[in-house]
Write a structure and sequence with these properties.
Length: 237
């Protein structure tokens, strides 16, 4: 079984569309030769009607987990903790990585498969140049400081072996936007097989990430990860 975890925070305008896309994928899984799909929506303490709309959209076809607001990483890790599948798929509610792209990614081997928007076979659609430049600058910081060889750590679509992922959970301290970096650092340090899967990704103007406001906090988080990495926090004892 695949556990599809969708984190949401104040997404009343698009949560129903996102859940509908998830339900369509789950309904088609058998015909596509994929394992059954369970849907888990994790509400990260929304202050609008997101949770109620998600619950209505899910019906009996999925689970809603309500949590206090801690950040995207915290929401995803809470979903992983309750997943019933063998593999857990993280994806954004806007489906900027489309269901057809997700279907291809689900066939990839590896204990951790990350969608990447850079390199051969990848495409970024509709992204403003300024946003792309900010993302590339952050990636250079990540590669220089903690994680060489990864041209894209921040795409929201990732597939992880549930048993392996739960072994990493006690190591993970980043609860916000930098959770991706720490997850990959921990996976590398613990010897997980990581696969980079190129995708077509479409920019969505309503993204919750605000590069100019959130960027400094993400940079500080990378330095905190670097300190823990150098102290041996992620290595097996």
């Amino acid at each position: 079984m695949i556990s599809l975890v969708l984190p949401v925070w104040n997404e009343a305008r698009r949560v129903e569309r996102g859940v509908a896309a998830a339900r369509a994928l789950a309904a088609e899984a058998g015909a596509l030769g994929l394992p059954p799909v369970e849907i888990i929506v994790v509400d990260d303490g929304s202050s609008d009607d997101t949770a109620a709309l998600a619950e209505r959209a899910l019906g009996s076809e999925g689970r809603l987990l309500r949590r206090p607001h801690e950040g995207k990483g915290a929401a995803l890790f809470a979903g992983l903790a309750i997943a019933r599948g063998d593999r857990c798929l993280f994806n954004d509610i806007d489906w900027s990585v489309s269901p057809s792209e997700v279907q291809r990614l689900l066939r990839s081997p590896g204990e951790l498969v990350i969608a990447v928007r850079e390199g051969q076979g990848a495409r970024r659609l509709g992204e403003p140049p300024s946003r792309h430049l900010v993302g590339r600058a952050f990636n250079r910081l990540v590669q220089w400081s903690v994680l060489a060889g990864y041209e894209d750590t921040q795409c929201g679509c990732k597939l992880i072996d549930v048993a392996a992922g739960r072994r990493l959970l006690p190591l993970l301290q980043e609860r916000g936007w930098a959770y991706d970096v720490e997850l990959l650092v921990a996976a590398e340090e613990r010897g997980l097989r990581v696969v980079q899967h190129p995708v077509a990704w479409r920019y969505e103007a309503e993204t919750r990430l605000r590069p100019w406001q959130d960027g400094p906090a993400m940079a500080r988080a990378v330095w905190a990860i670097r300190r823990r990495q150098r102290a041996g926090h992620y290595r097996a004892s």
